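Predict fold of N-acetylmuramic acid 6-phosphate etherase; 298 aa.
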Amino acid sequence: MEGEHTVNTESASSRYRDLDTWEPGEVLEALIDRQLAAVAAVRAARPALEAAALAVAGRLAQGGRLAYAGAGTSGRIAVQDGAELVPTYGWPQERLLYLLAGGREALFQAVEGAEDDEAAGRAAAAGLTPADVLVGVAASGRTPYTVAAVREARSRGALTVGVANNPGTPLLEAAEHAVFLDTGPEVIAGSTRLAAGTAQKVALNLLSTLAMVRLGRVYGNRMVEVEMTNKKLWGRGVRMLRELTGAGQAEARQALEQAQGRVSLAVLLLKGVGLEEARRRLGEAGSLRGALEAGRGE
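Predicted 3D structure, encoded as tokens:
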């Protein structure tokens, strides 16, 4: 595949010219190879991802909102990343925004002309402030809606991150932090839901996860702010508490119930801290580790 990564995501690769005549196993092998290459492209972007994630965490630590902008496949991948932060890390729903070309309807079907609407992109980002972060995602790097949203957000002082699969594109130039994912042409020309989409999903996963870790929403490698929305997660919460504190089954469950399902709060209760004092410490420290260290210093 020499030279393929120098052309853009819309290019047709000669390697797959007769794809429709291949054996099914050969088609799958080609698709798998390109998926692996997509992950390799994310690894190459690690320095940019690290710088972006640290900047995102720094800005969000000041109380701002995290917003995602995109159209079509890229927009849906962006929304998925943001939506998972609430149950996984307890990120406040009110501090999440989705700037999706075509609105909610575009999550389920294509909305004609939505990605070309620059005015809508600008309007969607007009409410962002210097306390906020906007992550714009576009495989082509040229989607008018997304580029306009990022430009508008940056003009208003928001921190901006651009994720694109073509180099030197308007989105990467518009964003303060540019993340280029060099996935090259797709097995099926122009179908960026394939390698480009995989690279975007992995990159956003890394970006938001590192930001959440830096924001103290993880203790060790435990999701101590996970939302308890079902029996499986309540069971996981009890196990976490037992492993983190040495408490028995019944004691851990009682603490978790008293903490209304918040593991970080339950840890402090099991350490002998009163409910209101535990809430105060978590609020002031911003993380379980910080709250525990503050208790040791008192």
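The longest strand covers residues 133-138.
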